[in-house]
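Mods, move this if it's the wrong board.
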Amino acid sequence: MQTYEQELQQVKSFLLEHDDYLVVSHVQPDGDAVSSTLAVGWLLSCLGKKFTMINEGPIPKRMNMLWHAEDIINGSEELPDRTFTYVICVDCADFARVGHIRTLFAENARIVNIDHHPTNDRYGSVNLVLPQAAATAEILYDLLNVCGITWDAEIATSVYTGLLTDTGGFRYTNTSPKVMSIASELLGHGVNGPELAEILLEEMTLPQMKVLVEALNTLQVSEDGKIAWVHVTPDHMDRCGAASEDLEGIVNYPRNIQGVEVGILFKLLKSGIVKVSLRSAGKVDVAALAQGFGGGGHVRAAGCSLEGPLEDVIPRVVEQVRLRL
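Not the wrong board. Structure tokens:
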């Protein structure tokens, strides 16, 4: 097994040796996924490399201010008519999280897998995985330094965005001394911390507020008060004019109830699939639970997707949580 420092050097060598990269993150990208995609794109541009950034699903509108965010292709709407031999996957806990963008991978594709999820199965030809990192953006901070880049406000803002969002505004237990040291350095490079916190963590769109109200109206709590959950249906989404990004953070509301150990958001898709988001206070390893359903994530934050109606999926998941309490 290679050390983290050796993995960093291996990725650096890979980036220098090849050209014409596809950079992709997970479906429905969040703050860390978007910022990591852009950080890799920025690094490749500094190295004089050709690259294409694609994600399955749109990036959240509030991240449009980041460097070249408009250049990330929404693979749900358009795909280039070609394949790529050299692929860089960021923030994807497993290969399936790439979604249908994998159809762009050549049969002999060589994949660089850069990620921080403990459930990562090291699916890459080259792997740079650090489970103790707070965000994939933290790993990219190290990679950028190994590659000897010169920091400026644009790239610093992208990396800071990943740290800010995946630590919940530097409030979660993954907020390590290293994270705070990096954040301090990035502020010194010109990042506007208060403005980013306002845009990324505080502001809510009207559809986001409306769908939150709909979700909270479905709130249920287990008899012992240790599990709480809400659900959202396509009707809720249509009635509120909400997009997938408007659901971000809703799972924290049931989790934040005093005495609750695990909060859950069930999102029913029009396809009949139910996406499940889980948040733990620490007693329950929701990553292990999600893995049992084909998903993954972190000890305190994980997710999975299940087939079936809500009335079947909800009790199945709640029962598995109950067995772990």
